Amino acid sequence: MAEKGLNYAALAGAGTEKYLFSGDSKINYPEGEVVDWYGYRRHNFVLDGCPAFIVEPPHPAPGLPWSWCLQWADAFVPRTPALQLLERGFHHVHINVFSTYMNDEGIKKAEKFYELLQSLHFDKKAALIGMSYGGLFSLRWAAEHPETVGAVWLDAPVCNLGFCSSRDESNCRPELLATLRGEAEKHFAAYRVANGQELIDHPKNPVNNYMPIAKAGIPILAIRSGQDQSVLPESNIDLLEKRMLAAGGNIQVIRRDYFGHHPHGLDDPTPLTSFILKHYPEVNY
């Protein structure tokens, strides 16, 4: 279904009754398939070889604020701020650059996506959503382009490029260790290093490259899961929090001592939504 041919009949077919009184959109969304996404209109398209989407709110807020889920954009959605932000007039977006692990190539692809959104007159600052690997991607983007970020929510985030390569039999069960070692090899290739220590020492590693975020005062709210065996908090969010606070950064951590890596988000994501909205005062809430 092409976007340019969208009409009320198409909306009914997509199940998006929320849009019946929203009026005609003045935003020229990229052409592609339009599908229902939790009752909202989602525009699927491809940019620079990467699948991407923009979810359209029924009533876009002034200034066109937006949330950007960097990875796992279809996971645990009702537990994240995404749906509540759509109701408040935020757009919600994603581009899949997972295979790059947000190396310099990934940043360039994300830059093209950002430029597209700016051509649609979206707010200059995104609210980033970073779950698991999305934490790595969010922190990489924020460090490279702090001027484009209004707030960041992280959940069980990867903050350390060496999070896989630093694991061994002493701190990982055998079946998970095999998976993590396979991931580590992909990280070596993506960042062009030979071993885990080079990843840990890499200047683009978020636990090393946090000063641009701290200096910009970008607010971060993170959920720490104390029983996480996939992304150990001690070498990820704990390390980032310690270094950010020492640098005068703005970071808060919700501690869930008895949770594992999943589920991401909260049963009621209102506190997460409120955190983001606090940093977008132009949105009436």
What's the short story on this structure?
The protein is of the alpha/beta class. About 30% of the residues lie in helices and about 20% in strands.
Based on CA atoms alone, the radius of gyration comes out at 19 Å
Helix-strand category: alpha/beta
Secondary-structure arrangement, i.e. CATH architecture: 3-Layer(aba) Sandwich
- Distance from N terminus to C terminus (CA atoms, Å) equals 34 Å
Shape category: globular
Beta-strand content estimate: 15-25%
What number of structural domains do the residues give?
1
Superfamily at the CATH H level?
A: Alpha/Beta hydrolase fold, catalytic domain
As laid out across the biggest beta sheet, the strand order is 1-2-3-5-4-6-7-8-9
Q: Helical amount among residues, as a percent range?
A: 25-40%
CATH topology: Rossmann fold
Q: Quick one: biggest sheet?
A: 9 strands, mixed
Mean pLDDT: 92
Number of alpha- plus pi-helical segments: 9
CATH C-level class is: Alpha Beta
DSSP, total strands = 9
Low-confidence stretches: 1-15
What string gives the helices and strands in order?
Answer: HEEEEHEHEHEHHHEHEH
